[in-house]
Amino acid sequence: MENRTARLTLLVDPIKKQIFEEICTRRDLTSSQVVRQMIRDYVQQYGTPEQLARMPVHD
């Protein structure tokens, strides 16, 4: 399997987006870094063993 990235497009309330980006900046993180971490955490919490086995070791 190729090791590529995929684009995820989502709609967010503008005020929530602004606050989110302010928090990310204050923590010296990009919004993409934070969203990727949230996705990893969500998959770890709710993924089946078969799905977790497909997760890359280094993400």
Q: Roughly what percent helix?
A: 55-70%
The DSSP helix count reads 3
Query: What's the overall geometry?
Result: elongated
Report the end-to-end length measured between terminal Cα atoms.
Answer: 14 Å
- Name the structural class: mainly alpha
What is the string of SSEs from the N terminus onward? Answer: HHH
User: What oligomeric state is this?
Assistant: single chain
Number of DSSP E strands:
0
Q: What summary fits the major beta sheet? A: none
Poorly predicted ranges = none
Task: State which percent range the strand residues make up.
Answer: under 5%
Q: Quote the average pLDDT.
A: 92
Rg for CA atoms: 14 Å
List keywords for this structure.
59 residues
Description:
The chain is mostly helical. 58% of the residues lie in helices and 0% in strands. It is elongated, with a radius of gyration of 14 Å.
Summarize it.
By secondary structure, this protein is mostly helical. 58% of the residues lie in helices and 0% in strands.
How are the secondary structure elements laid out?
Layout: H1 14-26, H2 31-46, H3 49-53
